[in-house]
Records
---
Amino acid sequence: MSRSCIVVGAGVSGLLAARELSGSGWRVVVLDKGRGVGGRMATRRVGEARCDHGAQFFTSRSERFEGLVREWLAVGAVREWSRGFASAGGERPPDGHPRYRGAEGMTSVPKHLARNLDVRSGERVVEVTPKNGSWRIRTESGLAETADALVMSPPAPQALTLVGDLLPEQRREALARISYDPCFAVMAVLDRPLELPEPGGIQLKGEPLDWISDNAVKGISPVPALTVHAGPGWSRENESLPAQEAAEAVLGFAEEHLGVDLASRTRSTSTIFWRYSWVSRNHPEPLLVGLEEPPLVFCGDGFGGAKVEGAALSGLAAADWLLGRGDA
């Protein structure tokens, strides 16, 4: 019997769930409030530059995800970027494990996954109602959709806002335990190359900075452009800062670390505040079943393993459960 599903969220988790269900003959609609697909696998144009400002790369540790990565490499959606990054002290860990990037930025992967799917961007879900054994969804624009099953892939606090009142107490509490750290991401277009050491990324993992990369050295921007991530502690303490003030502060930290005059070399900036950037406490399983009937399942990087691989495997697990191939 052909079935139908609404997937809320067009990040890698939601898109992979949708792709698996669609490939099994289900009618699937994906709704996302953003202008495009990808979630935190995000690439933005700033003037002539192209900058990854969310997830910077991903690794593959599991056999199932490795199969996906091989497929993405074969179609040209991803490329190997490096096998290690410089650390705060300038060393480059020689671990030899591949780090992958999107071929034209991290959005190359979700754009590939979204091909041939019914994805509705710019549709913010405002009402979720179970009725007569199915789900009815209404968006801010007035779009209405009905389906047999519902997959929720946004960050857990956003999912709770939409459907928390529908859940049994134990499952609602499990979602509420998932937590995230924020991140200010600042993109700065430069007037000349900065010459960061190859491969163009410095992994600091500290405060007030977490990451610095040059998108031109990385291979996705035609002109020099930095992406700088503030640390989670600094980002949380300063989340109310206006974008320009945050950019000046974060670039000041980068200037101090790199020992160069960034202020005089910066042509333009763009700033993003990621409220749900890093998972600080996850749900131990790769999915959470909210309701058995009508089926409601939660997935994303807050479930199981974190980061891109964890989100991908979570989306696949959600589809597996709906298809009767996996356990909750």
---
Amino acid sequence: MPPKKKFTAEQIVETAFHIAKTEGMDSITIRKVAEQMGSSIAPIYVNFEDVEELKRAVVQRVHELGKQMVLEQDTGSPFGDIGAASLQFAKEYPILFRDLAMKPNDYMQNYDQDMGDALVSHMKQDPDLAEFDEEELRLILFKMRVFQAGLSIMAVNGQLPAEMDLDHLKALLDDAAEDVVLAARWRKSKGSN
């Protein structure tokens, strides 16, 4: 009898991630992952207690991918980086984006904490934002996330004017970021939130 194939947790997560990006999170099943790996279900259960644990690992993979996309942007602006990464993710992974950003789910509960810490840290590197404390940066980030999420949803659903290419969208994000930061500065100078 030939030896059974052994798979690492990373290989299993990568296979589940491929299913999620092409068919959606709800399509991840232990049996489907095993079939795509040419295996029985046993190696998956050796690494993951159940399908929900595997799906959480896929979402963690998405978080890491998001952080990587932000760091790769290097637009010179933290908001430019964050917005461009969001637009890139929505464009490259529209099925996953819809599942995670547009459908009610429990998968993104830790997103604000996980990604928020990384993004606020990224914002602290911008000398133009040095006057803001961490709480103020988190509020600015939240406001920008609301705007960029709406823009990303419109982009992934084909609801933007045809002339709005990626460069136009990035410029729009930059304008919105400038508006949010200027408003935060004004409120700070007035002593209000």
---
Amino acid sequence: MAQLVYGMITSLDGYTSAAEGDLGTGAEDEEVHTYIGDRFRSVGTFLYGRRMYETMVFWETAHTLPDVPPHIEQYARDWQAAEKVVYSTTLGSVSSERTRIERSFDPDAVRALKAGADHDLSIDGPHLAAQAIAAGLVDEYHLFRTTSVVGGGTRFFPDSVRLDLELVEQRAFASGLVHSHYRPRR
């Protein structure tokens, strides 16, 4: 069975987006971007909410930008090769290949998707991930923490769920960003 992976860049205090400003520094260098690309290359399906999809659809054409660095081109090619499911009640159409819209998040349908998948799935966006976490669907958590404390915004973990996690691995980068990989204790 495939794993459902949830990973995002967060502030040091655990926010995926800040109430004001950005998440700070640490995530924009080539070393970090290459590492994230390598880490998620095994993902065969991305599950997105509308807002996250609208951010990520950039990768559909990123490889066509002038003077695109190899690590950006590779990430774009990997993203394009994956299936994408966008959960939205408002999105009328998609602008990327291998993409479909679902009008609601159905935990049983995601369980079936995991059971039938040859490659891991990634759930991206804290609101959509909160639903998967509440349903007990997430198998791995990847926090890519910047060096900034932002004091508020949208949290990586939902407030309404208790999780007991074990640290699988951790890596610090020269930029200050720290990757922490967790799995639920079973």
